[in-house]
Design brief:
The chain is α+β, with helices and mostly antiparallel strands. The chain is built from 5 helices and 7 strands. The chain has one domain: START domain (Alpha-D-Glucose-1,6-Bisphosphate, Chain A, domain 4, 2-Layer Sandwich). The chain is 33% helix and 36% strand. The protein has a 7-stranded antiparallel beta sheet with strand order 1-7-6-5-4-3-2.
């Protein structure tokens, strides 16, 4: 009985400590990557502002090219929604909505994940003209993990995992646009 009490007290103490630590862990995250594309900014922005084009370059879309997709609204317009449903765990189910467009500069999106977990995150793609034939594209993904799940941020390297996906997508985007 004494051993059981020691084990129970140890488990309760560890859980309490983890919950206490989670109070001090920043729950916000943001991962941003960029690439230079040798194409004029209007051409690049026109391509990235069409969410359906992400099927051709997004690392997440490429994980399951057979996922079910549906769309509502006019692509490249505020309110356009792209939905996906996949049996591949890393893809899951969710939707992405265009929430703001600054013409020839930036497109902002809200991502609402349904499976394998529920969360709402945000992304943007921004184009910056470096000269007449060169464009810097920045892709950013951000969000907030609720307490106490924010504790996972201490053990997950989002900068590496999400950053790898963003880099892969930007590399694919560069290849596609520079071939056109």
């Amino acid at each position: 009985m004494k051993l059981f009490n020691i084990i129970a007290i140890t488990i309760v103490s560890l859980v309490s400590l983890m919950l206490l630590v989670a109070l001090f862990v920043d729950s916000n995250f943001e991962v941003t990557r960029s690439v230079i594309i040798y194409k004029p900014t209007p051409e690049v922005f026109n391509y990235v502002s069409h969410i359906r084009n992400q099927d051709a370059y997004s690392a997440w879309a490429k994980k399951d090219p057979k996922s079910e997709r549906s769309y509502t609204g006019s692509d490249a317009s505020v309110g356009f929604v792209s939905r996906w449903k996949s049996t591949v765990k890393d893809v899951g189910q969710g939707e992405q909505e265009i929430t703001k467009i600054i013409p020839q500069k930036r497109i902002e999106m809200e991502l609402r994940f349904k499976k394998p977990y529920e969360s709402t995150n945000y992304a943007y793609m921004e184009t910056t003209a470096l000269d007449e034939a060169e464009t810097k594209v920045t892709w950013s993904f951000s969000g907030k993990m609720k307490y106490p799940t924010n504790l996972m941020l201490l053990f997950m390297n989002l900068e590496q995992t999400v950053g790898k996906q963003l880099n892969e997508g930007l590399t694919n985007l560069k290849t596609i646009l520079e071939k056109q």
